[in-house]
Write a structure and sequence with these properties.
Elements lengths: L1 H18 L5 H12 L3 H5 L6 H12 L2 H13 L9 H20 L3 H4 L2 H8 L4 H11 L5 H36 L1
Helix pairs in contact: 5-6, 6-10
Amino acid sequence: TFRNYLPFRRDLNTFLKDYYSTTSENLIVMQIKKKCLKGDAVEMIRGCMTVQEIVETLDMTYQRPSRVIEIMMKPILALKRIPAENYALMAEAYSMVKALCGEVKLLNISQEFYQRGRLEAIMDKFPMSELKEYIEFSRHATELSDFAGFVERQMRTALLLKSMTSGVEEDEPKARSEKK
């Protein structure tokens, strides 16, 4: 993850300073590929043959805020539009957005993230009624903390509606069976 990249990079620099001159570069490259990285990072460096190529490839991805944001938004953007009455899915999606806002804040890339196009792309996954509320909200919002507050309120509302409707849905079959 992005949060792990800076410590990894620091440790790699220390390792290279201490052992690069005494260890085969092929061995270092092999160790980095097999033991130091996981997931997307391994795929990114698959064709790299030198330590320098690996470092440059990873730096291009993990030190560019726009790329970091793009990768972090991927799970949300992969969602289909949520149906209007599916409060459980809505609450789950808002929870994902809330976590994304927290990560963005921790990585100190709020300004890069807080752009209308990105926020609209996220909100486009929600029902039209939610999108309308976001559009009204966005007229007065100026920073990430405003958006995070909006997401928190919407998530709580969805959770409340979920709890209210889940009891109703469970009671309806009982009522039908009692009439028989």
